Amino acid sequence: MGQLQGASVVSEGTELLLFTGFLGSGKTTLIMALARENAAQGRKTAFIVNEVGEIGVDQKVMRDGDLEVFEITAGCICCQIGVDLVRTLRDLTETHRPDVIVVEASGVAAPEGILDAMSYYRGPEFQRVRNIGVLDPTRLEALLEVMTPLIESQIRGVDEIVVTKMDEATEAEVALARWAMDGLNPTAVVHHVSALDDEALRSLAQALMSDGDGHGVAEPGL
Fold it and tell me: Model-level pTM?
């Protein structure tokens, strides 16, 4: 699912992390934890953010943390501005050469759409690509009722899933999340986290930047 048609993966180079998830699922919180961990490890990290309906919010949060952000706001990364994403990625890899590029897609982006846009990328090869979905179990039932195709694609189209808000979710909500993931993407690596647990966020950030491909690195919790 995470393979890019237009980009090869090599042993050295920039790592690419693609994050999708509906509005308010906790993507920015997770990415901020990832940014702090990368900074602590001395990794040069660039962020591309794109949030339809909340233009500038994520950029302000990131820059308040002294992080460099490249924002695409003309529309959803996965559709009408896919060319801008490809151009930004090429500029970053050719000019800035970061160790890691983190793409936070719009809450209405489907993973398949991002990978389709990435098929036009012809810049330097990536060391590794990780396609990560962020899932909020507390709103999953309601979202599945009104936005079924989008939410199902955000679960089905990724290699790893981070289930957030474990401190808020009921047993029934967690069970529904498990049922949806098992049915739509049974091979995905699943992590679980609460934004209130700084150590868990740090551990998850370390797992997402691990040397392996992520398979078998699931966090306990379900």
Answer: 0.80
